[in-house]
Amino acid sequence: MANKADTYVVHGAVIQCNMGLRQSKLVLRRTHGVFLRKIAQINEKDCIGKENIIDFCGCISADNPLTMEKAMEISEKVEREKGENFDDNVEEIFCNGSIGSVKTMSCAGKCIPQIISSTWDEVKDGVLTEGKRPVRGTAILKCKYGGVITIELTGQPEG
Questions:
Q1: CA-closest candidate to residue 45, choices 64, 17, 26, 22
Q2: 114: closest CA among 68, 21, 49, 47?
Q3: What is the residue-level pLDDT of the chain in tens, covering all 159 positions?
Q4: In the chain, fewer beta carbons within 10 Å around the N or the C end?
């Protein structure tokens, strides 16, 4: 297996967010016209949430309002069913730790990738494909809710 730092990323690469519930895929909704082994190559600007990044099924970041909304829904259900009110303690009850400076929850809200990076951070300098630099396998993106998205598999076939 090639070193990811020396490998370019292509359509269908497997990605992971440390705040997500599952791995996902990096996709191109349109063709760039640059192909590696007959697969469209990802460039530095292919980092748009919902366009290039299929969601990670759910988000455990307490910074994500949809995760906190899910915790409140659970709290309200418990109150209806058990007559117990613990709205003031929702975060304390559901918070199960942290990743870096972001609290994580034991429940998950909807994942809608909110990418704050304007480009992938690891690209091949000195090489331009259609005016943009190709992405290396060690590149990362950052999400507004504290998630760090990494490339697990570059998408290139082995061999």
A1: 26
A2: 49
A3: 578 888 899 999 999 999 999 999 999 977 777 888 889 999 999 999 999 999 999 999 999 999 989 888 887 877 787 776 665 556 666 676 778 778 888 889 999 999 999 999 988 888 887 789 999 999 999 999 999 999 999 998 875
A4: C
Residue linked to tokens 């309002």: 65
For residue 125 the two structure tokens come to: 């300098």
Q: Put the strands of the sheet holding 13-17 in their side by side order.
A: 24-26, 13-17, 148-153, 140-142
First to last CA, the chain: 8
Q: The domain spanning residue 128 has which CATH number?
A: 2.60.200
30 and 92 part of one domain = no
Write out the chain in H/E/C secondary structure.
Answer: CCCHHHCECECCEEEEECCECCCEEECCCCCCCCEECCEEECECCCCCECCCECCCCCEEECCCHHHHHHHHHHHHHHHHHHCCCCHHHHHHHHEEEEECCEEEEEEEECCCCCECCCCCCCECCCCCECCECEEECCCEEEECCCCEEEEEECCCCCC
Q: Are residues 2 and 14 in the same domain?
A: yes
